[in-house]
């Protein structure tokens, strides 16, 4: 199993309970979308899976090992095997796109090679190939602070394509892209995961994109898994219940006056 969680809980440092009783198994090559309303715990779950946050309860296995039983150095080596795609990639503004993409392999390179790469990009052709898959090769030598939000997201994704990790975790990877580009980018990510037989988990707000690009859908609500189903088997009622917003329905003066739950369109 790429991921194996049983009874996992997460409490943030301020005492906020973010995840409870999470049971989740993901095999190599599986493509899983994580959906759910704002504040449900999607980002917390992805950060936990990436070992950025330590579970407060339960058992968590990643790539065949229990990360929190490893030494800090071994956990750092484990992290280098995971590709993490952020909604807003934390790239230094003055960095060139080529350097940002090549940084995907820093965890695999020696210190000397990494330093040399900062002075002079060691594999511009490899970075260009990763960018070309996302229709962004013309930005190879641009500075990151000269890109749009959607272009920056694609640089973050190109970096992970270049990294060739054993697991891809993506937090709202296409939120700043137009629908056509978002669909294309998710298709590229899906192809990459299938071709290399690695698991891909992505949180998405766009339910139609989740259903179109991911065979398995995990719905998260109030820190718990509400459902975990093949996309084909998901009922509209389950989606409606996932996104039902009691606060909006009961707040005085809210435009949502009907007691009915929100209707989420399916593609
Ligand atoms: N660093 C943090 N410290 C304290 N509480 C946090 C932290 N990050 C998230 N939370 C809380 O944990 C809960 C889950 O938040 P999370 O960001 O995981 O939700 P989400 O489903 O990703 O939301 P969104 O779709 O709005 O991004 C929320 O109640 C949030 O306020």
TrEMBL record:
Primary location group: membrane
Cellular localization per UniProt: Cell inner membrane
Keywords of the record: ATP-binding, Cell inner membrane, Cell membrane, Membrane, Nucleotide-binding, Translocase, Transport
SUPFAM superfamilies membership: P-loop containing nucleoside triphosphate hydrolases
Topology with respect to the bilayer: Peripheral membrane protein
Top-level division of the source organism's lineage: Bacteria
Domain ABC transporter: 3-247
A Pfam family this chain is assigned to: ABC_tran
GO molecular function: ATP binding
Name assigned to this protein: Phosphonate ABC transporter ATP-binding protein
